[in-house]
Amino acid sequence: MGIEMNPSQQPPLPLKPRHKSKSQIRCRHCNELYFDDNNPRGACEYAPDIVRSCINKITCIGCAQCICYHCAADAEGDFAQHPCDCTDDENCTKRWCCLTFLSIFVPCLWLYPPLKICHWCGVKCGACGGRHTILEAWVNNDFPRYFSVEM
């Protein structure tokens, strides 16, 4: 006689091995160290974020960045990467005047502040935002060779 199994009772599944490394990994976007088990959405500001790029395209914020680059840059040529940020620099008033004038001709700029607030809430809730991504050179131990020495 063989082993009889009850068809309604299945054998338990094997457990997955949990050998999480506690070593830090370097992000390829921001070059910061992070732990793999602590990498929520929104952790990396420089990682690709589909929602943020859609907001930037829908609201034509690239047009505002161009205006700020050409009209509201300081003497060294530096300008604010995010035109709607208010910092304590001397060009903040000039930048907001440019944005106000531009919003007359590009009305979709009015959507940027409410969409940016929605995105900020989504990042805080963990619904959107970019995650750290492992640097491939760290995985393969294949760091780029900048100098080649031939003998």
In total, the number of strands is 2
Largest sheet: 2 strands, antiparallel
Total helical segments? 5
Distance between the termini: 74 Å
User: How does the helix and strand content classify structurally?
Assistant: mainly alpha
Mean pLDDT: 79
Percent helix, as a range, is: 25-40%
**What is the C-alpha radius of gyration, as a whole number of Å?**
25 Å
Q: Going across the major beta sheet, what is the strand order? A: 1-2
Question: Which range does the strand content fall in?
Answer: under 5%
Please trace the helix and strand order, writing H or E for each element: EEHHHHH
Residue ranges: pLDDT <50 for 5 or more in a row? 144-151
Q: Overall 3D geometry? A: elongated
Kindly summarize this structure in a few lines:
With 151 residues, the protein is mostly helical. InterPro entries: Sprouty.
Overview features:
single chain, 151 residues, mainly alpha, 5 helices, 2 strands, elongated
Overview of this protein structure:
The chain is mainly α. It has a domain at 42-129. The protein has helices at residues 50-58, 61-71, 92-105, 112-125, 136-140; strands at residues 25-26, 33-34. Strands 1-2 form a two-stranded antiparallel ribbon. Helix 1 packs antiparallel against helix 4 and helix 2 (61-71) packs across helix 3. It is elongated. Residues 144-151 have low confidence and may be disordered. InterPro entries: Sprouty.
